[in-house]
Write a structure and sequence with these properties.
The protein is α/β, with parallel strands linked by helices. Helix content is about 40%, strand content about 15%. The strands form 4 sheets. The protein has a 7-stranded mixed beta sheet with strand order 4-12-11-10-7-5-6, with helices on both faces. The protein has a 4-stranded mixed beta sheet with strand order 1-2-3-14. α4 packs parallel to α12 and α13 runs parallel beside α15.
Length: about 400
């Protein structure tokens, strides 16, 4: 039997569907973000990164780098194994305390990634609740969907951010334990969940709430606690989930909530129990990033300013910027091949790196570029981006809007 043909068929299917993914070989330069070196087939080239989830550039912050280097020098690199076998490194204990404080919760639990914290966190929580009914937003991330699927619990999907539909579903199941699962900020459209109204419904109908804040922690709220902190509802949400790999510039995921809930997950979650812990150096770096962003608002304010300017300049150029009230700047393309082609031209001819967002990340026909300005994208880079994108749009005959008179 030719087993190789099965894998060839699987990969070829992606090529035929125009969904085959190509990764750019990039080398970031600490202190020069968003500039990087692209190791292209033709050699090294300097490029500007416009789609990084290191939203605030904390991956290059001197405090964060310093904490990582100091810890690695002092205690070594790896964690030595799972926390059950090797013990918990002290830096990890400090990190979990910092996260619990960030979200105003009794306890926090760190996982190896945000994907794992959703996947194993949701599955474990729901399994521990007898006859649990999960109500899931239609646009929840794949990690949340996988967690719900692995829980084995009944799931009902409510229309995206539609609280009237959510209430209708809650009302139809008055006597069952219920878990409402949603994100606070949806990263492909850049829209925000009505968390206060969702909390109202959860309290009215006796449901628990689980909110993914991965694209919002560090970015919103007076101390970077996320949309829930900004909207004053952090104390009303049962489980808050986040990542250390985006605004905090490191690696890992976590959940935060009441001590007994976190302890139950800690004691039952396979994705926690059987996985090697995060290394101490990464934990120290993440703790340094969180502490810095609790007291420093400059990064958040500057990033919002840059995002607003990018939206204004691109809109003034006639480019189809999709509506967003957040730091996410989606630009509509609507065709997978042209989306990939636009990104290839921007990279190869203009030194601008933006990854195409195609199906299954977004529905077919809604392909787009997803731009994430950082505090370090200056006016010159923004103007270069607009000029390059306009040239690409005209070259590929992509639709433009009527141009505004000026960008404020």
């Amino acid at each position: 039997m030719d087993y190789n043909k099965f894998f060839d068929i699987a990969v070829n299917r992606l090529h035929d569907e125009r969904r085959y993914r190509v990764f750019a070989d990039l080398e970031r330069i600490a202190g020069r973000f968003p500039h990087a070196v692209w190791h292209s087939p033709k050699g090294e080239r300097n490029v500007a990164i416009w789609c990084s989830n290191d939203y605030l550039g904390m991956g290059q912050h001197p405090k964060v780098i310093g904490a990582m280097v100091e810890t690695a020098t002092r205690v070594g690199t790896g964690a030595g194994g799972t926390r059950n076998i090797a013990g918990t490194n002290h830096a990890l204990i400090q990190l979990e305390r910092e996260l619990a404080d960030l979200h105003g919760k009794e306890a926090a639990l760190v996982f190896t990634s945000g994907y794992v914290s959703n996947q194993t966190g949701i599955a474990t929580l729901a399994k521990l609740i007898p006859n649990c009914l999960i109500l899931s937003d239609a646009l929840n991330h794949n990690s949340m969907i996988e967690g719900i699927r692995q829980s084995g619990c009944e799931r009902i999907v409510f229309r995206h951010n539609d609280v009237a539909h959510l209430e209708e579903l809650l009302r139809a199941h008055p006597d069952r334990p219920k878990l409402i699962v949603c994100e606070s900020l949806y990263s492909m459209d850049g829209d925000i969940a009505p968390l206060a109204k969702i909390c109202d419904l959860a309290e009215k109908y006796g449901a628990m709430t689980y909110v993914d804040e991965v694209h919002a922690v560090g970015m919103y709220g007076p101390r970077g606690g996320g949309i829930a902190e900004r909207d004053g509802v952090m104390h009303r949400i049962d489980i808050l989930e986040g990542t250390l790999a985006k605004a905090f510039g490191c690696l890992g995921g976590y959940i935060a909530g009441k001590a007994n809930v976190i302890d139950a997950v800690r004691s039952h979650a396979p994705g926690f129990i059987f996985t090697t812990a995060l290394p101490p150096a990464i934990c120290s770096a993440a703790t340094a990033a969180i502490r810095h962003l609790k007291s420093s608002g400059w990064e958040r304010e500057r990033q919002q300013d840059r995002a607003a300017r990018v939206k204004a300049i691109l809109t003034a150029a006639g480019l189809p910027v999709m509506s967003s009230d957040t730091h996410i700047v989606p630009v509509f393309v609507g065709n997978p091949e042209l989306c990939k082609k636009a990104c290839d031209i921007l990279l190869e001819e203009h030194g601008i790196y933006i990854q195409p967002i195609n199906y299954p990340t977004v529905p077919k026909g809604t392909e787009r570029l997803r731009i994430t300005p950082s505090p370090y994208h200056d006016d010159v880079l923004i103007d270069q981006l607009a000029e390059a994108m306009l040239q690409v749009w005209e070259r590929l005959n992509l639709p433009l809007h009527a141009k505004s008179l000026a960008a404020e």
